[in-house]
Design goal:
The structure is a single chain. By secondary structure, the protein is an alpha/beta fold. The chain has a single domain, classed as Rossmann fold, CATH 3.40.50. It has helices at about 10-20, 25-35, 40-50, 55-70, 80-95, 100-115, 125-135, and strands at about 5-10, 35-40, 75, 120-125, 140-145. It has a five-stranded parallel beta sheet. Strand 4 (about 120-125), helix 7 and strand 5 form a beta-alpha-beta unit. Helix 1 (about 10-20) crosses helix 2 and helix 5 packs antiparallel against helix 6. It is globular, with a radius of gyration of 15 Å. The mean pLDDT is about 90.
Length: about 140
């Protein structure tokens, strides 16, 4: 991947970095990539939903605020929402995926399509779901290290 490419980290990467702490390789990866990173609003929402204590909530609010001040938050457009619905319908028909599976893919589809809006690469630990989405939509994908 070219060094100048924009990145959008999936929720899984942030969760790992938060769990492993400031001295972890996951946190180092986020810090090194920060100048090339956009925060997906969907990821921000998922992280907020999972932040149950005051410390975690404060860290996430500071993170989101920093990205917002930099103008580096991406939000799915109406077209991305509609494309996500079309993609998930195709997956449901072709993969015979149960409704629960389709519901679990909504946020991942929105993250991928938001990243595509700006030509960014999605970085994730959740390769299984994103690879499935990639069979139905073009977007760049990279495993988290």
């Amino acid at each position: 991947m070219p060094e100048s490419r924009w990145l959008v980290f999936d929720t899984s990467v942030y969760v790992t970095a938060l769990r492993q702490g400031l001295s972890s390789s996951a946190f180092d990866r986020l810090q090194m990539a920060a100048p090339r990173t956009y925060l997906a609003s969907v990821v921000s929402g998922e992280l907020r939903a999972g932040a149950l204590d005051a410390t975690g909530r404060r860290v996430l609010l500071e993170l989101a605020d920093r990205f917002e001040r930099l103008g580096r938050v991406i939000t799915p457009t109406a077209r991305s929402w509609n494309d996500a619905g079309d993609i998930l319908a195709k997956i449901a028909r072709r993969e015979l995926a149960p409704r629960e599976r389709i519901r679990s893919l909504w946020n991942d589809a929105l993250i991928a399509l938001s990243a595509r809006q700006i030509g960014a690469t999605v970085v994730t630990e959740n390769l299984r779901d994103f690879r499935l989405l990639r069979r139905y939509a073009r977007f760049e994908l990279e495993p988290s290290l």
